[in-house]
# Entry
Amino acid sequence: MSIIHITKDNFNEIISSEKPILLDFYADWCGPCQMIAPIMQEIAEENEDIIVGKINVDEEGLLAQKFGVSSIPMLAVVKNKTITNQAVGYMPKEKILELF
# Structure
């Protein structure tokens, strides 16, 4: 599965999924966000049971505010419309998968 770019327009549809969701709050100018992007792509391609979504904080400020994003990259795991875990900053793939 590929990464889904989440906006305010498709957020409710995505968040209603029965699959666990890994949200990546990022910005194009953010160095650590660029470093984590290929890892997020790998996770999306290797785990069909997980939805991986990216939210650009510069374009989707309301969504970033809703999730309390103060630093990026911020990763949030959502299950049944509830945040079950979150982390800030770059981390290797193994640590990201441990968030589940």
Notes: The chain has one domain: 4-98.
